[in-house]
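ok trying this again, last paste got cut off
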Amino acid sequence: MAITATATSFAEGSDPTFDLTVTNTGTVACLVEAGTSQSEVLIVSGSDRIWSSRDCAPADAASNQLLIDAGDSHQQQLGWDRTRSAEGCPAGQPSPNPGTYSATFTVQGAASAPAVFGLE
């Protein structure tokens, strides 16, 4: 799996977007559960946890089962609205500051390499 920021830096007022890719490197088709309960995009700045796709997801979020043929990939895009989140989705989180951030994509416990990007 991989996560790629669609730009190296996002101007003030421009929401970051990411391409998420799950690739089947095996020799047979496989079924991957990529729903909210089994996948996560996590954004950090250094040791500061900024946002997680799981924090504010509804408890009854639908599953997203992907049947991926051997050697094929599934790609989708995810946008981040520059909000900060925390477990349990409490309101009143401070806004992220300009700086350098990294995002990782995890599906069923396997994590991507981080995608580094900037916020202006």
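PB: full thing came through this time. The two ends are 27 Å apart (CA to CA).
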